[in-house]
Amino acid sequence: MLLLNETSLTPASLILNGIPGLEDMHIWISLPFCSMYVVAMVGNCGLLYLISFEDSLHRSMYYFLAMLSFTDLVMCTASIPKALCIFWFHLKEISFDECLVQMFFIHTFTVMESGVLMLMALDRYVAICYPLHYSTILTNPVIIRSGFATLLRAVLLIVPLIFIIKQLPYCRGNIIHHTYCDQLSVAKLSCGNIKVNIIYGLMIALLIGGFDILCITISYTMILRAVVSLSSADARQKAFSTCTAHICAIVFSYSPAFFCFFFNRFGSNVIPPSCHILVANLYLLLPPTMNPIVYGVKTKQIRDCVVRILPSCKDTKPHSI
Known about the structure:
Elements: E1 13-16, H1 26-53, H2 60-77, H3 80-89, E2 93-95, H4 96-129, H5 134-137, H6 140-167, E3 175-176, H7 183-187, H8 195-228, H9 233-241, H10 244-267, H11 273-298, H12 300-309, H13 311-315
Parallel strand pairs: 1-3
Antiparallel strand pairs: 1-2
Helix pairs in contact: 1-2, 1-3, 1-11, 2-4, 2-11, 4-6, 4-8, 4-10, 6-8, 8-9, 10-11
């Protein structure tokens, strides 16, 4: 039964129904979800530990990487544990206020991730195009202010969205065919006018995504020009190799985001909802899982730090006679 508050048409609780059409496969779907979540937790916590305690990683590039790792941790932790509870224990109920809190953290930190990727692109631009001024331009105060501004931007954009969702009247049931509280999925339960939600959500996606992607594109255009102008092939390869991990992070983040964006607007009658929900979860899970792996493989300084702290590596060192 749908329970409503006495003073408004607001449900006391909602039901997250998981992935529609694939209910019988929830247990099997949970296995890659759980595995990726464990890898994401271990990898990002490991990166945060290394960057915190290794003096060689106290540089702007790694500070931005720490922001990305923290963002990834919050983003996937806000959604995946609840999804696993649905898959394993059929704990589908969530209070309306808890739903809003989950929605706030998921949407805030997805916007935050886009901003951090933009900052990392600007960092690479300064490092390659202005190497002699790198440490004087990207000082610790500048890094802190840019990180705080990126977080503040995300919060200020998402809080009005949460407020609009909270004010809507709900009279179309309380079952959400999703694994987490997506703003559009919750808004569709309303019997009120949700055009404001749709337009505001579209504005956030276009303005933030468009602005960040534009900055990233301009940065890499300038980087490419600077790299091509280098006389030595080895210098060109070394300069551009410092960007490969960041390019991979951009691909992992924006590819599923574009799919979700175009599905919500244009493909709802073509692509099955189960496919959309799987990709939406992948959007929250793939970047946190892959970013630590890619940066660990592609970044020599991180590899050296990992090798140095592994006890097994110490045992392989030859003993003095």
